[in-house]
Amino acid sequence: MAEIVALLSAGCHPETGRLRPAAGDAAALALGLALCASGHRLIGLHAGPADDALRVYAGFAAFDLVRLDLPAEADALPAILPWLAERHPALVLAGARAEQGAGTGLLPYALAQAMGAACIPEVAGVEELAERVTLVQALPGGRRRRLAAPAPAVLVAAARAAPPSGWAYARALRARTVPVTVQEPAATPAWRSEPARPLARPVRRIRGGAAARMAAATSFTAGKGQLLVQPPPDEAARVILAYLEAEGLLRS
Amino acid sequence: MGSGGVVLLILLGALGWALIGVLGRVAGWRAGRPAKVDWLAGLLALPRRYLVNVHEVVARDRYASTMHVMAAGGLVLALLLLVLVHGFGIASPWLAWPLLLACGLTLLGAERVLRRRTDRPPRLSGGRWNRFGWAIGGFALGLAWFTLPAAGVMADPGLFHPASLVFAALLAWSAFELADGLAHGPMRHALAGALNLVAHPRAQRFSADRPVAAIHPIDLDAPKLGVETPQDFTWNRLVMADACVACGRCEEQCPAFAAGQPLDPKFVIRAVAMAQAADHVDDRHYAGRRWPGLEGRVGEGGAARPLVADGGLIPPAALWACTTCRACVEACPMMIEHVDAIIDLRRFQTLELGAVPGKAPAALAELAASDNIHGRAAARRMDAFVDLDLPLLREVKSTDLLLWLGDGAFDPRGQCAIRAFVQVARHAGLELAVLGEEELDTGDLARRLGDEAQFQRLAEANIATLARYRFRRIVTTDPHVLNSLRNDYPAMGGHYEVVHHTAVLLELALAGRLQFQPSDGQGAFTYHDPCYLGRWNGEFEAPRRLLDLLGEGRVEMARHGKTARCCGGGGGAPLTDIPGPRRIPDMRMADAKATGADTVVVACPNCAVMLDGVTGDYPAVAEVAELVLARLAVPAERVVA
Fold this sequence. Notes:
The complex is a heterodimer of chains A (about 250) and B (about 650).
Chain A: E1 3-7, H1 23-37, E2 41-48, H2 52-58, E3 64-69, H3 77-87, E4 91-94, H4 107-115, E5 118-129, E6 132-138, E7 144-150, E8 153-157, H5 169-174, E9 177-181, H6 209-218, H7 233-246
Parallel strand pairs in A: 1-2, 1-4, 2-3, 3-9, 4-8, 5-8
Antiparallel strand pairs in A: 5-6, 6-7
Chain B: H1 3-30, H2 39-58, H3 62-87, H4 93-118, H5 128-151, H6 162-184, H7 188-198, H8 204-207, H9 235-242, H10 249-253, H11 255-258, H12 265-276, E1 281-282, E2 300-301, H13 316-321, H14 327-331, H15 338-353, H16 360-370, H17 393-396, E3 398-404, H18 412-427, E4 432-434, H19 444-448, H20 452-466, E5 470-476, H21 479-488, E6 498-500, H22 501-510, E7 525-527, H23 541-550, E8 554-555, H24 573-576, H25 584-594, E9 599-602, H26 605-612, E10 620-623, H27 624-630
Parallel strand pairs in B: 3-4, 3-5, 5-6, 7-8, 7-9, 9-10
Antiparallel strand pairs in B: 1-2
Helix pairs in contact in B: 1-6, 3-4, 3-5, 4-5, 5-6, 6-7, 7-9, 9-12, 18-27, 22-23
């Protein structure tokens, strides 16, 4: 069966800043574990200085763990690329963006470009993996669409995809990682951080005094919808069906 | 051959049969993990544990206790005299008559056993237990017949007299039924029950004035964490499971069972007993009530097979429906520790499999990354109390009373109770300080959800923090915190004097430092005992006396004190959220409504949330400290904010 690599970065709790599984990468791992269950081999890949970042993912299931030894602030791409080129995985899974560092979300695209593979964002599930990968992509408004792409491909997990379940302390504790020494000297990042500046927000001016401002703040402007007050059930059902059809959510 | 000889023959045969069975059972126990047992102390304490601790529970059911005194007392007496009369052949009427009397007593007891069986309450198991009364009675009757010649009532009719043959057959059947039951049937409770009293894993529950209900820590470096198969229990916990008499008193008390959730504490213990004796067994022949909602389910297991699994003897949902309220333990006449067993089983599910259901995994993940289950920064714990200017222990270094805020600090109901307590304590001139952002979750919830790793991590961190400061006592509004710090921390190296805020308030009131306004004629109170203050820590009186000082009429719910019904908020049950046709807090509020009281008084932030969340026409829910604050005999604005 094919080999799948999930890119796992060090997560960061939004309130405390402590290490945890990054939400996007955990969702990518969930995709990988689902494929793992159908017989594919999953490798969790982390590029960073410590095993702990990988260990927080290891509690979810038993799978292979590889860590490319890299300083925390180094660009991961030059280290990951040669390693991937050597292994030729059928799929690379990633989260939308890292929770530490620049977090630009560029890595999967840069990776796909270098690999000459397709990069597919917002992946909600992978249905089949062979010569081609069949997957389900999440679209706005709860819609889904089925796509197929030639393997290898880089898939970015949907932000709202379900994280994996079943984190177990003992699995994380006993997990063994394979450290890989990176030969290339780590490139210094081409960006620097500086304090955020508040951006000017356009304020909508409302004329006509306090009453008008109050009305503007409390009233809701009607949307495109259709308002039905206590309609008979038949009519309500017809309108709902028509709406669903118009949104492309219903196939007759 | 005299007819008396046949008694000896039958008894020796039965004894041999019993011995083979018991040796097999003992081999099963020995397959369990080793346990440290103080044999001498246990043996010396046995009479007291039996006559005081066991009797206290058995005597709550007068019918059962009289039945047991007659049947068991008569049988033991008869067996002792039997050795003299038939064993050594001392055919003296001075021994034979007492033996006849013992048989008579046993027969009366057996009649009571059988009478209860004719209209069997559903909590009692059927199956072999239905034959038990016949076996005891048959044994007493057969023995009496063969003792009559020794008592001089009649001449020995000889073994081949038709009546003798009939009685010999009766004696043989009953003796073998009882002897076989010693390993595989009802009689096992006598043997395992006695051994359980001697080698009880929680020996302190018999001796302490106040129950010390610590959960035993585990070694996190062990190759397997928690209990997967019966053999992963320590051997004395296997004995404990074998001590079960299937009386179902635990079932009657279990709030989850009453709510129709698939938990039956009796079945949990019976499942362990069933599985430990066989390589492979299924529960098709189990004769008690089954998991509510899963009546058709067939579970399989064995001594070295997983106990908790979808097809296992215990369904996973049963494990996670438990609120760890200890009502089952309190009701058990055999001193069985159901909750300990459930925690042991949960540990394996959580630490090894990560199989915690519902919202609990998310809560545990937040706990790991932020030291509280809400994922809030440490400083947020003080948000609701900024205006109170509580001194931080980090700044004042020492204090008389350290106020532990607990998880209630993140919940509006809990915040109200803490604020009310602080205001009353200050009014009475108490010196209070808090840890503030240095305070972490106690790890209590993690421990009860089986996440022993997080409990130990948090306990070690909290103990290290507390070691830096000086304080006399820790006070908390949360009984879960109280129990954790008082009972669970000593094994981790933290020894503190921990008091509940109701105890402090009572001290202040008795010392005359709190004056209450006369009652303005509100309706009556009824007090809801928090499980972790009451059953787990034996504190029933302070809140009640405090309420009595407030002067309102106080009425008790039918289930109060040691038999109080849980609010449903313990043991992580609100997070695992196992569905059932009824809700536990709804049932508790119905209990409260039935008293006619206007107000249910709670003393725990979890109880406050659970009971306050019940919608409909029910009594109001108020916290003790809030009531005290409202009735202080000073104008409200004079109470220091």
